[in-house]
Design a protein that fits this description.
alpha+beta; Nuclear Transport Factor 2, Chain: A; six-stranded mixed sheet
Length: about 120
């Protein structure tokens, strides 16, 4: 992966996730009024979920990490970026199996203000 601004942002994001430093990730990379839209079925209500920045978003990411446990990024593909957007697809393996994840992040002032997530379990 080259060193474009979007790829640097992605690498930093992955570092936060892998270290579990969600509070800093949200402060550093998400706007105060950010919204996450995700189909991931890990909450007490059925998806899709619309999650607002703050404690609810940190709680969602914590549950997402706990659900997956240790994971590997098997491949990253279809990575695209504009000045205000980053999108990609990834294949991950976790304790729950293999997943194809898709992400689209809209940025305002260098922070994610809209995070669209997509997921499909392969096995």
């Amino acid at each position: 992966m080259s060193d474009s601004p979007g790829q640097q942002f992605f690498q930093k994001h992955m570092g936060y996730l892998m270290s579990g430093d969600l509070h800093t990730m949200l402060q550093d990379q998400y706007a105060e009024d950010a919204i996450l839209i995700t189909p991931f079925d890990i909450l007490d209500v059925p998806p899709p979920h619309i999650i607002h920045a703050g404690p609810a978003m940190e709680d969602f990411f914590r549950k997402w990490l706990d659900y997956h446990g240790a994971m590997t990024l098997d491949s990253l593909y279809d990575f695209a970026e504009l000045d205000d957007s980053i999108s990609f697809q990834a294949l991950i393996t976790s304790q729950t199996g293999k997943w194809v994840l898709g992400e689209a992040w809209h940025l305002a002032n260098g922070k994610i203000d809209r995070h669209y997530g997509f997921a499909h379990k392969l096995d």
